[in-house]
Design brief:
By secondary structure, the protein is an alpha+beta fold. Helix content is 45%, strand content 18%.
Length: 231
């Protein structure tokens, strides 16, 4: 009888130990299932896509065509700013490609001067300067007027002051009768004073407007500033 009791006690002890092991294993499993997953590193953002390279007439205009994406200029007005930046970025190349020194004494002077001029920073478009230029086009073009004084006797600075604040210096060019950005630019470069405005090393911003002119078919006004803040 004693052996039977010991046998049953041994069996009961084994059953108890097996049950404890199962419970510990379950607890361990439960504990592992609630452990947070390892933190993953944040994905690296893709590098910005560089602007497409634009080659025009052998010029890489990617950094010169600063006005192409603005929404307040016509294609012709954007072309004018591109031509300005082309001659500023490489005056010698521009002169050799587009200015005929045998055309006139003025053309020869422009050609020789640009050959000696170092590269200058490109200009950025400014809305306020373009609005001031547009005022002059709309005022003088239908009246067949030329020059820098408006029909209301307004001056360059008065027109610019309507749209913003300028510092240090401002200037203005007026072109008549030329229908492409290049022709406009060359006409002005062959004039000493207008060339000085385009090639002013201190200028940083530009505004342009074009429109009909009752005497010369088309006109273009360029505004330059060393510093300008739109209203």
């Amino acid at each position: 009888m004693g052996k039977s009791i010991r046998f049953f006690v041994l069996i009961a002890l084994l059953i108890f130990l097996i049950g404890c092991s199962s419970t510990a294993g379950n607890n361990t499993t439960t504990s592992q299932s609630t452990r947070p997953a390892p933190t993953q590193p944040a994905p690296t953002p893709p590098a910005p896509t560089p602007p497409p390279t634009k080659i025009i007439d052998g010029w890489n205009t990617t950094n010169l065509d600063t006005a192409r994406n603005v929404n307040y200029l016509s294609d012709l007005e954007k072309d004018v700013i591109l031509e300005i930046n082309m001659v500023r970025s490489d005056p010698k190349k521009y002169a050799e490609m587009y200015i005929n020194p045998s055309k006139s004494a003025a053309a020869r002077e422009a050609y020789n001067e640009l050959l000696r001029t170092p590269s200058l920073p490109v200009l950025q478009p400014k809305l306020g300067l373009s609005l001031a230029a547009k005022d002059h086009v709309l005022d003088t073009g239908p009246r067949g007027m030329t020059g820098h004084t408006g029909s209301d006797r307004s001056t360059l600075s008065q027109r610019i002051n309507r749209y913003g604040t300028w510092r240090t210096s401002i200037s203005e060019n007026c072109s008549y009768g030329m229908g492409t950005g290049r022709d406009i630019n060359i006409q002005l470069l062959e004039s000493r004073g207008h060339r000085a405005n385009i090639m002013n090393r201190n200028s940083t911003v530009v505004g342009v407007a074009t429109g009909p002119h009752s005497r010369y078919r088309v006109m273009c006004v360029q505004k330059f500033a060393v510093d300008f803040t739109d209203k």
